[in-house]
Design a protein that fits this description.
Two copies of one chain form a homodimer.
Chain A lengths: L1 E5 L6 H11 L6 E6 L3 E4 L6 E4 L1 E2 L8 E4 L12 H13 L2 E5 L2 H7 L7 E2 L6 H6 L3 E2 L4 E4 L2 E4 L4 H14 L1 H10 L18 H13 L6
Parallel strand pairs in A: 1-2, 1-6, 2-5, 6-7, 7-11, 8-9
Antiparallel strand pairs in A: 3-4, 10-11
Helix pairs in contact in A: 1-5, 5-6
Chain lengths: 214, 214
């Protein structure tokens, strides 16, 4: 089973690495990172670089595609090379998925017209403008399209996919292997749960990619 | 504030990327990936490469060090270049931390003698042989040394550190920004919670880095 994760300038690392860490452990899986041209791609804050080992055109028909998000998605909303690859890969994929603002690219490629989908909470309006119906769930399934909410939600989505692909036992074994027994010290991981002043801080973080000193 | 994350051949990506995704969002933070020599380092399964932008010797005194795990730690348990860097960085650090089998390197460097620490559940014996006292908690604090359990626990540890460094409001805003509102589809993320046949599958995954077909 071949999993393709497209990278691009200013992607968010955890969007890609969460699903990678789950799906790469499926029996017989290969995860390939691809970009318009092979080579180094930097994250949104520029502090981390990951390698795309192949060009998008080298991997036209993966079984699973996982489109990560990041600020760089905005520059790709009319990029026919990226959107055409997504559209073509979706034709033969078993699963077409996204994490965070990666769903903006699925929508821009025309895959989410009138469909339920999710994305990072800060860009729900953008997703709707691109034709999808935003729903406030962590993982949203519509046929073979699965979208996940912001950044860390790709781990949950990875496990949902793992169960569909290889069964509950394998998915649970992966969860155990990556010791995903979450114990966040706070309960402020969604706009519905965070206090207003925390939401305000997080909204301001969107401008600089760092939380301003409070 | 400078955060250093050492990379090495056969590291586990999420061990490094979880804390990176949290700590890079702290006000004024810089996260630097380093290795014995700058350049590409591959993960345990070889499917992902990340770039170390500097040499360890270029970043001798970070404020925070985060040592990730992975199968590659075993080859470093007597590596004086890596262990010497950890020891030296610890002398002036504010926080010295590890994720997963990264704690084996802290222990091998002599930092955990007789202290409580955690690691991936599969290597608790190895950690104890290196002089630490294994405790079954997700994040273990001993003065300025903080160790986290397997792979995904680095996200939780990152948030614990973020709160200590910049206060609860900032940590909560980061949690919200990365939408860390975990909803795993199963509750098998620790040996205490997983059914025996799942534990068996996960233990067998340790040999091949993939879960065998069940």
């Amino acid at each position: 089973m071949e999993v393709a994760i497209p990278l691009f300038d200013r992607f968010t690392a955890l969007d890609a690495v969460g699903p990678y860490e789950v799906l790469s452990r499926l029996p017989g899986a290969t995860v390939t990172f691809a970009a318009k041209s092979p080579g180094i791609q930097r994250t949104d804050n520029g502090m981390l670089a990951m390698e795309a080992s192949v060009a998008l055109s080298d991997i036209p028909a993966p079984d699973v595609l996982v489109v990560p998000g990041g600020f760089g998605t905005r520059a790709l909303l009319e990029d026919e090379e990226m959107l055409g690859w997504v559209r073509q890969a979706h034709e033969t994929s078993t699963w077409t998925t996204s994490v965070c603002t990666g769903s903006l690219l699925l929508a821009a490629a025309g895959l989410l017209d009138g469909m339920e989908a999710t994305t990072h909470w800060a860009v729900r309006d953008k997703l709707e403008k691109l034709g999808a119906r935003y729903v406030e769930r962590r993982v949203v399934e519509q046929g073979k399209i699965v979208t996940a909410a912001g950044v860390s939600s790709g781990i949950d989505m990875g496990l949902v996919l793992a169960a569909k692909i290889a069964g509950d036992d394998v998915a649970q074994a992966i969860q155990l292997y990556i010791e995903y027994d979450p114990q966040p010290p706070f309960d402020s991981g969604s706009p519905a749960k965070a206090p207003p002043h925390v939401l305000d801080l997080a909204q301001r973080a969107g401008k600089t990619e760092q939380v301003p000193a409070s």
